[in-house]
């Protein structure tokens, strides 16, 4: 017994003891990761700020074609300059209602980059600039073929969209020059799953792809409210907003377009014109149209001696905002106006040109109680039929289903004017 117990003790004593090695806690690993990420982000922020200062110093801001848009010009140019300098990728979300200068400023930025082509060539970092307008595509997936053909103009071939997308994927996996792609009217290529945008954004999250994407949306809403979660998370924080022009900004634009004048009456008239347009849409194009028509009326009536500039502004404004469709909107019933406001809100929130009947029904039924109205689905369907018959809206069929698509047959500024909606509200 003693011998056996001593042998067992000996075996036990010779058995190796496992010692657990000290492990890094999850918090320590996170802390380390955060420190690394924060350092890289800080470096990125510093680099972008330095690039922005450099852009402001080196580039002549007179190359910005629109007054009161110099800040947006610098932001977009700094973003692209930074990506080229750091050999990185990224996406910028450019948003704004129509007529606020998004396309003009972005094209001016691309022209400024092309003018610095020789500077980048010395660094052996040549780059390609591509511009695609969503309205020119017959179908959303056609963007892959257009993208590939413009990227390889000497190798244009008849490819299916899927084959073109695969070839683009292989292109970014190989060594290549930096690529800058601007997609205007991007809301036109957004399918239900937003898969096309997802693939584009997925290429921008890899720095080695050297792919810079500028997305232009016709809405003032944030990408989180317009895009799916997976796309909004990849969009990043590089954003450039083009708010509607204010009264003071429109006054500067109009006076610069028609030239300076010593006439106090003319200056007051242009200020009145700018104030009216700013209250409706903030659209610079519409303000310039009214200013041009005002000068024509003044010139026509100057021979008769009745050439009041203020009266001419009123007449020009009435001519451009007195179409039969605007008059039809003005004479709509309260319920019809409520439905139009709901359609307008749905289109502006999504940035698309069409919405579904079910979305309008939900919007109207939720807002009707605050207007002291009791509205049923049948009432809304009846109103939609009336608006369709008046050619104010367009529908897939004259008998609306809750899943049918509808769109406005009148421009958004004209609907806003007819409804008396203030664009700055």
Topology:
Blueprint (H helix, E strand, L loop, with lengths): L1 H13 L11 H33 L11 H17 L3 E7 L5 H14 L1 H6 L5 E6 L8 H10 L9 H13 L5 E6 L10 H10 L6 E7 L5 H4 L2 H7 L3 E4 L4 H12 L5 H17 L3 H18 L7 H12 L3 H7 L3 H17 L4 E2 H11 L9 H13 L3 E3 L9 E4 L3 H8 L6
Parallel strand pairs: 1-4, 1-5, 2-3, 3-4
Antiparallel strand pairs: 6-8, 7-8
Helix pairs in contact: 2-3, 3-4, 6-7, 8-10, 11-12, 11-13, 12-13, 12-14, 13-14, 15-19, 16-17, 16-19
What does this protein look like?
By secondary structure, the protein is α/β, with parallel strands linked by helices. 57% of the residues lie in helices and 9% in strands.
Summarize the structure.
It is built from 19 helices and eight strands. By secondary structure, it is of the alpha/beta class.
Distance between the termini: 97 Å
Q: How are the strands of the largest sheet arranged?
A: 2-3-4-1-5
Helix proportion of residues, in percent? 55-70%
Shape designation: globular
* Number of contiguous helices: 19
